[in-house]
Amino acid sequence: MPNAVFAGSFDPPTTGHLDVIESALGIFDTLYVVLAINPEKEGFFTIEERLEMLHAINKFGDRMQVHTWNGLVTDFAREHNCSVLVRGLRNAAELPYESTMAYMNHRLDPKIKTIFFLYDAKHVDISSSLVRDLVLHKRLPEGIVPECVTKVLKTILRERGLPLL
Fold it and tell me: Which helix (H) or strand (E) holds 88?
């Protein structure tokens, strides 16, 4: 099977992200999980903190490669011999945006295809922005982020002098 790229801001990674990663690794030999750096967006968590959380969820060994990238995802895919971009869909409302991105990525490199994975129903209400809000309100229910990410979040909050979850 070809290698694939799953790119996002992962601010922070959620159980939905992990669901997509597990689904993709059921098909692809190697999945590059790419923390895409957008200079126009300032994350709540630093790049280093998000990388730490992504490394924490890696229970797949070398099959899951974590990278950062400051550019077009199609360029990353080409440079790493990947022919597929992986995207997760929580619901139908995300399809217009995601399909537009898929068409543009295909225009940028016709050899690269996009595959969509539907989130498991138990993850459809989870987004990174919602997680950030819940963290700030000290109300993060179990199952929203992987347990290993919760541990990293607690360490980050302690270091920032913020109340713990």
Answer: strand 82-89
